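Aim 2 progress. For Phospholipase/carboxylesterase, the working sequence is reproduced below.
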Amino acid sequence: MYNHNFEYKTTGTPAAKAKGALVMLHGRGGTAANIMSLAAELNVKDFAIYAPQATNSSWYPYSFMAPDGQNQPALNSALQVINQLVEQIKADGIPADKIYFLGFSQGACLTLEYITRNAQRFGGAVAFTGGLIGEQLTPANYQGDFNTTPVLITTGNPDPHVPLTRVEESVEILKQHGANVILKVYPGRPHTISMDEIELAKEVVF
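Predicted structure tokens for this construct:
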């Protein structure tokens, strides 16, 4: 088992001149550089882009629906890395309501888990195929009020890694904490990101 090093890449507009920040979380086996390439497809040219890198290229070793103990301490360490990065962004001069999040697959799960454990008015969030983390969800883990933060969650159905039932359960919890959630389900779509999803993210969040 492992803890993460606090490593991240940046690109885009320097924070001092940026209108917002986008935190991009890669999936299992991915890299910070790879997920950052998606920024070129979004309306974020005035944003500072931040992308942390998971140790071992994985935020946690097992399925996001495995018993919590199997994914520790990597999972808690991953959440700590995201929190440390958010604090760094705020120290760079960008407030929480101008911070956006985007993740794919394992990175989407971590995105949703982080923002829902720390619900407040963020700029927005996009989860390309993901759900809240845990063998069973524990509502007590989730605190705060999103205050209508726009959140887009997309998924294929069926998806080999993320059951639609968990996605729908996650949507309800985010709504209970005040998020303005849009869920888009793509029948038969493989485990990837389609151009339609990118266009929808631009329409709903960016």
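The first helix runs from residue 32 to 36. This observation will guide construct design in the next reporting period.
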